[in-house]
Amino acid sequence: MPYVKDVFEYLKRSSPSQTEFYQAAEEVLESLRPLMEKYPKYREHKIIERIVEPERQILFRVNWVDDNGEIQVNKGYRIEFNSALGPYKGGLRFHPSVNAGVIKFLGFEQIFKNALTGLQIGGGKGGSDFNPKGKSNNEIMRFCQAFMSELYRHIGANTDVPAGDIGVGGREIGYMFGMYKKLANRYEGVLTGKSLKWGGSLVRTEATGYGAVYFAKYMLEDRGETLEGKRCVVSGSGNVSIYTIEKLYHLGAIPVTCSDSNGMIYDEDGIDLELLKDLKEVRRERLTEYVKSRPNAKYTPVEEYPEGCNGVYSIPCYAAFPSATQNELNLNDAKNLLANGCVCVSEGANMPSTLEAVHAFIDAKICYGPGKAANAGGVATSQLEMQQNASMSSWTFEEVDAKLAQIMKDIFVNASTTAAEFGEPTNLVLGANIAGFRKVADAMIEQGLV
Ligand SMILES: NC(=O)C1=CN([C@@H]2O[C@H](COP(=O)(O)OP(=O)(O)OC[C@H]3O[C@@H](n4cnc5c(N)ncnc54)[C@H](OP(=O)(O)O)[C@@H]3O)[C@@H](O)[C@H]2O)C=CC1
Ligand SMILES: O=C(O)CCC(=O)C(=O)O
Question: I need a labelling partner for 218 at 20 to 30 A (CA). Which of 139, 211, 284, 439 fits?
Fold first, then answer.
């Protein structure tokens, strides 16, 4: 369909060098071909041209002072991409790799992911190229305060509600909330992922990882399979990875790997979850420390991974949970997984698989849950936090967890029935992209040209 190609070419011209954004856009636009052919209204309303342009992009300077008294300068970003379904919603990422294209791809994915949750949330994302690694607690606090000293004027409980992502967890949300409260003089649910002591929701910490495992469970159940007793690989060792590992244990599976940007752990007996939590959530240490307490486990540094591969995906497994970062799983990794009998990939991270790897999974017809469907449990539970804040109530762990599980089931059913409607029942990339897009596009049409 030349039309989709034209839009893609336009993006490359108008937003140069935004590689990750082109990748995310290409995947979505390709999936939309059958929908655009069947329903001319989307073309008449120029929905594709409108949806690829953020409603608003905010780029700002963040000045702060490090522990040596030196002034540091970082870039801050917030993309308010699409508000057809509700207030902009999406996390903040603090990582040196952050740039305009990375934030734009994340914001673009967030539009469709948030639509799939069935809840009233639009798509947004933000962050900074600030590197939290090696920073003292005071430096983290000063940076978060400086970041919020600009961001506060653009956000609000009913306009734009940020949360965490890579490098932003409960501690950073706390410092940013404190600064927002001071500057705006309002105590409101302007951020999610807050502490349970002052407005957070039970299960938000666990939600993305738990959700990715629930999604795998529903994909497998549909084929008469379960995770019980199955060996699984997980990448990363942050928030999403830790709670993926926890939920895998709840379901009787055996998670045998985790990783960070320096290397990976292979623990044949199953990852020691309490040790991992202590290392990462309390001591904030590197994975090299893991093997000191667990001598039977093996640590492999990135330099020793098989050439052109991510070591995690060379370990034979039944199911894989990419939970670190974008493009961590390439075609070689997909081939390794498939050759070793992997039948399920559920993405906790955003766009962890390259386009070639995605196509390999679709062609193999395995259970493949793309990030925007499989990791939607995090943002969905954030919206449950917003609901609790708005009604000044708090729900029990069991209530929120049950809602999360139901939302993940609904996303699976929606993506798979939509995929079947368009003739490819096992292609959840097609199903998730069309189902998410259709909801946002119909709302945009009904709300007029704004
Ligand atoms: N938190 C949430 O609720 C949600 C998160 N996600 C996605 O899940 C993924 C993980 O996020 P989260 O767990 O919150 O983040 P964390 O910061 O808690 O953990 C990130 C993990 O990924 C690793 N990692 C990050 N960048 C790289 C890299 N370039 N190469 C190798 N490893 C890397 C980190 O290792 P190291 O310490 O060495 O940097 C760390 O182990 C991201 O893609 C995020 O967008 C999606 C939905 C919701
Ligand atoms: O909880 C949120 O609002 C956002 C989570 C997020 O950043 C994501 O879904 O990628």
Answer: 439
